[in-house]
Amino acid sequence: MKKLLLFTFLLFLPFLSSLIFCTGFVKADPPPESTVTENKKIVVGKDVSAQSPKIFFETPNHNFGQVFKGQKVEHIFKFENRGIADLEIKKVKTSCGCTAAILSDKIIPPGETGEIKTTFNTGSYRGKVKKSITVKSNDPDNLSYMLTISGEITELITTDPKRINFGSVYIGVKTEKTITVTSDSDFKINKVAPSTPLLNASITEVNANKYTIKVTSKGSDKIGRFSGVINLETDNSLQPKVTIPVFGEITGDITTYPKRIYYGKVKKGEGRVQKVFVKLNKENIQISGVKINPDYLSAEIIENYKKNNLQFLIEVRLHENAAVGKLNGLLEINTSSKVQPVIKVPIVGEVT
Known about the structure:
Structural class: mainly beta
Strand order of the largest sheet: 2-9-8-4-6
Strand content: over 45%
Number of domains: 3
Largest sheet: 5 strands, mixed
Low-confidence stretches: 1-45
Shape: flat
Number of helices: 1
Order of helices and strands: HEEEEEEEEEEEEEEEEEEEEEEEEE
Radius of gyration: 39 Å
Distance between the termini: 99 Å
CATH topology of the largest domain: Immunoglobulin-like
């Protein structure tokens, strides 16, 4: 038995020696010097905006308080480039009634300042108003920076109505409207001047601090919408000018909408349908037919679209075989009207 144990021990002795040698008694060789690198500090994902221009307005909102109607409000917005790269002012866009101009260079170096001047014309406004100015730049955090000007516009001289709407006026027909101009204090209207030859305006009555003015649409022979203003010049130093907007539409026997067919961008091989609405303003008028070009366009008249209103619908189809490129077509509506024997509706778009 002892001999058997001794034999077994001797048999496994080489295996045990090999195991001890590999697990700890012999150290591994160090890596070559060429593979040891210095522990350098590397910044990963650093904020790009910290290395870019930065537009800053200390006062982005300006309240001009209370002004009289007709006065111009001017204000200069000052800004600074607080970044570490050049700031580029790409565009300044304003809302209605405002204009804006860059007084400084469009390229502002780091630490330098610039100015934007805004002008607001109060002639068509009253009460509380708020207008916006959008400054577009290369600041990644503020590609579109919003500025505002606000305040209240008061009137010493008022008009009733505030604007004149002639509505639809048949071609060649004169139409009259009346407005009254009043004030709580003494004033005088020195001049009445329409902005367009389509209008005529004159003072018909003066009573204390009240004027009555007759405005006439002369009856244009051109069909379409019109607009203009009646300018009043007064002796009031705080409100020397009063502006009255005027608008309307000269119509004939037939009215069409829209005045132009726009397809936008259409992919080649895709058809599309647009609609033109036709209203007959006289019962004895008829639509005799339509013509359309180019040949990959077609038009279909849908009669009695609205029987009671004498309205028709024309469907204009752009077919799948339309050629790639700009679309410049024309729809011609032939009628029995002596005033509008042919109505032309342009067709535009692009096939891509």
